[in-house]
Amino acid sequence: MGGWAIAVHGGAGVDPNLPLQRQEEAKRLLTRCLNLGISALRSNLPAIDVVELVVRELESDPLFNSGRGSALTEKGTVEMEASIMDGTKRRCGAVSGVTTVKNPVSLARLVMEKSPHSYLAFSGAEDFARQQGVEMVENDYFITEENVGMLKLAKEANSILFDYRIPLPGTCAAGAAATNTPIRMNGLPISVYAPETVGCTVVDSQGRCAAATSTGGLMNKKIGRIGDSPLIGSGTYAGKLCGVSCTGEGEAIIRATLARDVAAVMEYKGLGLQAAVDFVIKERLDDGKAGLIAVSSKGEVACGFNANGMFRGCATEDGFMEVGIW
Questions:
Q1: Burial class for 134, CB neighbours closer than 10 Å (0-12, 13-18, 19+)
Q2: Which residues does the record give as substrate binding sites (predicted)?
Q3: What is the pTM assigned to this prediction?
Q4: 249 labeled binding residue
Q5: Active-site residue numbers?
Q6: Which ranges constitute the DSSP H helices of 75-228?
């Protein structure tokens, strides 16, 4: 074992003209979350506790698209999803369609630990949350003034926005419809690529890996849409070799079972962590755009993306720490 390691992300795909102020805000949030996780690891908290702790912090800050600040559905409401996985015994929990649970990642962990199931959704997940006594809030808590404005733009453009804050070339407003050839998803045009899903992967000093991912999904998405974030093996995976959290074009990540494939090529091809990450990003996404963070049971940390950037940060027990976007 090579000691603990931690990685966090706030989404792949970044506007090259993103204002410096927003870049600095993102870096400060990622740094704060890294330091929170580092402190927990130095206190010998297990990996599964640390990923939940860090993702809760990300969900509670409206900067990225999870928890408070989540993207809005076509009806102007929030439907969130999250998953968590403990690599020690490959235990997992996931939720979708959550509308009043303050921290979806913690509900996902309760599904893992307090239910006979691995995945609960919509009214069933909400009922389970009430039974477990988790903190509940009104749906309005998750809605920000900025997101209301971006949903209006999305509806005017008659499009689904991956990142509702990012302007396109030739447009005058963030999230406005493209006037040039749009990116396509499943053969259908969408306007912007750059989701801001959040995630965390950790290996603790005992070599135990864990991963967690949380998101509000797409702006102006259809009611009931489920992406990759709550799907074990696609958006999240942890086993004895590694822990992985993905972000990006959900449909492409689902088709590639991207998170699990990192572990698979490590196991079956004998690749190291970074080589495995590079392989799946290059070979498994076809025309999709995505990114991921990963840690190995040896204390390694890696990231990869084929978008133009990814909000990310990582640190290891030997003192290495890095926060980046591009």
A1: middle
A2: 225-228, 247-250
A3: 0.90
A4: yes
A5: 197
A6: 104-114, 122-132, 145-157
